[in-house]
Amino acid sequence: MPTLPGMPTRTLAHLSDLHLDLTPTSDAAARALVDALQAGHVDHAVVTGDLTHQGSNAEYARFHELFAPLLDTGRVTIIPGNHDRPGEDVGGTWMEGQKVRTVERPGLFLVCVDSTGEHNRNYFASHGELTRDTLEQVDAALDTAPVDALVAVLLHHHVLPLPEESFPERLATRMGWPHASELPLGAELVTRAQGRCDLVLHGHRHRPNDCVLDTAEGRPLRVFNAGSSTDLGRFRVFGHSDGRLVGEPAWCRTARTETPRTASHNVRPALQYLVTQLGMALF
Length: 283
What we know:
By secondary structure, the chain is an alpha/beta fold. It has helices spanning 24-39, 57-66, 68-71, 132-143, 167-175, 186-193, 229-232, 267-282, and strands at residues 10-15, 44-48, 76-79, 100-105, 108-113, 150-154, 199-202, 209-213, 221-225, 234-241, 244-245, 250-253. The strands form 2 sheets. Strands 1, 2, 3, 10, 11 and 12 form a 6-stranded mixed β-sheet that branches.
């Protein structure tokens, strides 16, 4: 990404739902993202979950290989998504047993929230988990935010209602299953963050979305769904200075065109999961 006219001194990129599955297609899409991040000299990037597709160590190793230029310089923060929990549960270790932790970088204060749960070890249970204890921990973390830092809450699952994007999601909603629903306490998290936070960044749904919530304190809170960065071939970049957003976020496009996944992308891992569960039940 070329430097934009009047670009502030610091930038934050938001990526999500990479679903690295060890195929040439996902590898190429991820490489294009890294190339764009480096070309744009982005100061820091966050990836809000679903880095892997089946929660395997090999997929996570591929992420480390592809994102090494940014990881080696401490310019990436990650949190787990539901797809990082099945299989070998590679995402289960990323938060070091914590539901909430903070990351500080120059001009930036990140409140990282693990919205996954043990039910996500089941490949088909994709919904998130957010408890009142976790909300209290988020409150406490926001209380420690420096006044001169841009404050962002990161989590994987969506906090506000979003339209269903596929037939399985529509079916789950009609049947009353939780799989396609927003976090039950998501709206309360947003309410608590208003006036104390600048961004809530999440993924989970593969189509991007955003909304602005004004507050009486004059510090708007913006909620952004990144969508699937590898599918979209693009990601948002936020400019910030002196603890506040500067201008509107800019989409940074990679050299690859948008390539949405189809439902068939989930067929193979779903069958593998069922075979594994059947084998465990038999033996």
